[in-house]
Write a structure and sequence with these properties.
By secondary structure, the chain is mainly β. It has one helix at about 1-15, and strands spanning about 35-40, 45, 50-60, 65-70, 75-80, 80-85, 95-100, 105, 110-115, 120-125, 130-135, 150, 165-175, 185-195, 200-210, 210-220, 225-230, 235-245, 250, 255-260. It is built from one helix and 20 strands.
Length: about 260
C-alpha cells in the first residue's frame, strides 16, 4: 500500500512540474521539448520567429471583436527558450518559452497564435485578441532615459479637465539644451480621476529624479492655460498645449514639454 501511495504522489509531482499556472484563466498545457510545431492549418511556427521584444498596440474582445481601451499594456520578451512577461506597471514574470501547435507559452501564460508576421504578432486569450508589434525597446525602458529633443515653442490653450480623465504616460519630451540632468524632476505619468467639473480633480503623479521614482497622490486644478498639480508641499505648474483622444501635451515652453499617451 505504501508503495502505491508513493507512486501516486510521484505522478502528481511529475504532472504539476509539466504544467504552468495561467494568470489569464487558460488551461495549462504540458510543454513539449520541440521548439517548433505545425498547427491545424499546416502553418509551421517556431521560437525563432518570436525572438525579441513584442509590445501590445491594440486589444479587442474575442467575442464580437469590439475594440477596447487599456492601460495594462502586454510586453513579451523572448530570448532563446526563456521568456519575460510584463503587463503595464506590474512586476515582471519570468519563465520558459515554447510553441505547441498554434499555442505560444511564455512564463506561465498560454496564448493562441492567431497570426504571425515578421513585425506583427496577433495572439488570442480566453477573452481578448491582442495585437503586438516588434520593438527594439519597450516604452517603459525609455521613460526617464529617452533622448530629449530640443524644445520648440508651441501655443498654450485652456483644456477641459473632465475630458482628460485617465492615466497619461510620458512617451517623449522636448527640452531646452542643458536643462535636464540627474537632479531634474521629470514627470513619468499623471492620472486624472474624480474630476469635479472641468477645473478640479484628484489624481496621482509619478515623478523621476536621481534615478528614483515616486508615486504621489495629488490635487489637479486647471486655470486659463495651465494646470497646477499639488502633492503635500510640492507644487508643479504646467502650461497646457493640447489634448486629443490619445495625446496630452503639457509642460513649460522655457524648460520641458511632455507628450503623454494612454497606454
Amino acid at each position: 500500500m505504501k508503495l502505491i501511495l508513493l507512486s501516486l504522489a510521484a505522478l502528481v509531482c511529475i504532472d504539476a512540474a509539466a504544467q504552468r499556472v495561467k494568470r489569464k484563466g487558460t488551461t495549462p498545457h504540458p510543454l513539449k521539448a520541440s521548439n517548433s510545431s505545425i498547427n491545424n492549418n499546416g502553418i509551421t511556427y517556431n521560437l525563432e520567429q518570436v525572438q525579441g521584444k513584442w509590445q501590445e498596440t491594440s486589444r479587442q474582445l474575442a467575442v464580437g471583436k469590439a475594440a477596447l481601451s487599456f492601460t495594462d499594456t502586454l510586453m513579451i520578451s523572448i530570448n532563446g527558450q526563456k521568456a519575460e512577461v510584463k503587463e503595464g506597471m506590474s512586476m515582471n514574470m519570468r519563465g520558459e518559452a515554447a510553441i505547441d501547435e498554434n499555442s505560444l507559452q511564455v512564463a506561465g501564460d498560454s496564448y493562441k497564435i492567431v497570426s504571425l508576421e515578421k513585425e506583427t504578432m496577433v495572439l488570442g486569450s480566453d477573452e481578448h485578441i491582442i495585437t503586438l508589434k516588434k520593438v527594439n525597446l519597450f516604452y517603459l525602458e525609455t521613460v526617464g532615459k529617452d533622448s530629449v529633443k530640443q524644445i520648440k515653442h508651441i501655443e498654450t490653450r485652456p483644456l477641459d479637465l473632465a475630458l482628460l480623465t485617465g492615466k497619461w504616460t510620458i512617451y517623449r519630451r522636448d527640452a531646452k539644451p542643458g536643462i535636464i540632468n540627474t537632479n531634474t524632476t521629470l514627470v513619468k505619468s499623471i492620472e486624472i480621476m474624480d474630476a469635479a467639473g472641468t477645473s478640479n480633480a484628484k489624481g496621482e503623479i509619478v515623478i523621476f529624479s536621481n534615478n528614483i521614482s515616486q508615486k504621489l497622490p495629488c490635487h489637479i486644478a486647471m486655470s486659463d492655460k495651465n494646470m497646477q498639480v499639488t502633492s503635500g508641499d510640492k507644487v508643479w505648474i504646467f502650461d497646457t498645449y493640447r489634448a486629443s483622444n490619445n495625446e496630452f501635451v503639457f509642460g513649460n515652453n522655457n524648460e520641458v514639454i511632455n507628450y503623454a499617451k494612454k497606454f
